[in-house]
Amino acid sequence: MGSDDPIYVVQTSTKAIQRCLLMTTDPGDLVLDITCGSGTTAHVAENWGRRWITCDTSRVAITLAKQRLMTAVYDYYELAHPHEGVGSGFQYKTVPHITLKSIANNEPPAQETLYDQPFIDSKRLRVTGPFTVEAVPAPTAVMSGEGLVISERNSLTTDHYPLTTAIARSGETLRQSNWRDELLRAGVRAKGGKLIEFIRVER
């Protein structure tokens, strides 16, 4: 089922995701989407008070999902127990479930909870909560004694080291050293695109 107003080539309708989400999760649960696309699952999860993790191999998809979440505005739902947070659930509307048996026996009808209709606090609105965007570092070109070698920045390479048992014993330490060197060289990109550079990175 496609979206009525898509921003991505294979964007799923929010109604389809919402139906699945409400049937299988409760407020505060964690939702994982391994192919986020335009971020519909994360968008719906955020709307209904679920935590989420979403990922994609496409930088375009990640950028669209990030923009969609950062510009979204959601209704503020009334909490069942405000002091316990969203994990306590919402206050939902209920309707009477009237059956022939309840009418014949003059019994009060049971109440059915409408989990897709929580009470909305019209005086407040919500925006997306804090989240981070993580990425695998791109491959880098390094010079070895045998010429140019392409390797992953976050992988353990042995291009500059003799193949001895010492590497196997110090693999994790060696990898951490590579990470520190890369952090010192590249720095960290902060909010607003500002680059944070380090003078020294210690273990």
Shape: elongated
Fold-level CATH name of the largest domain? Rossmann fold
The class by helix and strand makeup works out as alpha+beta
Fraction of helical residues: 25-40%
Largest sheet: 2 strands, parallel
Encode the helix/strand succession as letters: HEHEHEEHEEEEHHEE
Provide key terms for this protein.
203 residues, alpha+beta, Rossmann fold, two-stranded antiparallel sheet, 6 helices, 10 strands, 25% strand, elongated, SAM-dependent_MTases_sf, EC 2.1.1.-, methyltransferase
Structure description:
By secondary structure, the protein is an alpha+beta fold. The chain has 2 domains: 1-135, Rossmann fold (3-Layer(aba) Sandwich), CATH 3.40.50; 140-196, no CATH class. It is built from 6 helices and 10 strands; from the N terminus they run H-E-H-E-H-E-E-H-E-E-E-E-H-H-E-E. It has helices at residues 14-24, 40-47, 59-70, 100-104, 165-169, 171-186, and strands at 30-33, 51-54, 73-77, 92-97, 110-118, 120-127, 140-144, 147-151, 188-189, 195-196. The strands form 5 sheets. Strands 1-2 form a two-stranded parallel ribbon. A hairpin with a 5-residue loop joins strand 9 and strand 10 (195-196). Helix 1 crosses helix 2 (40-47). The longest helix is centred in the last third of the chain and has 16 residues, at 171-186. Keywords: Methyltransferase, Transferase. Residues 10-66 form the DNA methylase N-4/N-6 domain. Belongs to the N(4)/N(6)-methyltransferase family. InterPro entries: DNA_methylase_N4/N6, RM_Methyltransferase, SAM-dependent_MTases_sf. This is Methyltransferase.
